[in-house]
Design brief:
Blueprint: E1 6-9, H1 13-24, E2 29-33, E3 45-49, H2 54-63, E4 68-70
Parallel strand pairs: 1-2, 1-4, 2-3
Length: about 70
């Protein structure tokens, strides 16, 4: 069974490290940053840019069946 994707809030060194770990593990993920300034390669992830308020986050997680959030 395929595992649920992970939502990582980035824009920090810790966010980049989290992406590195989930990529090495072959997990599906979304990497969300407020601005497009940070350069990062998302091999098995999807890059999201822009602000999400609480309702947006809740809806995104529901729509994409997110199983874990890393902030």
């Amino acid at each position: 069974m395929d595992s649920k994707p992970i939502l990582i809030f980035g824009g920090t060194t810790e966010g980049r490290r989290a992406v590195s770990v989930v990529q090495e593990a072959g997990k599906r993920y979304f990497y969300s940053t407020l601005t497009p300034l940070q350069e990062i390669v998302c091999d098995n992830g999807v890059r999201l840019v822009g602000n999400m308020d609480e309702d947006d986050m809740r809806q995104f997680c529901t729509d994409n069946d997110v199983g874990l959030i890393i902030d």
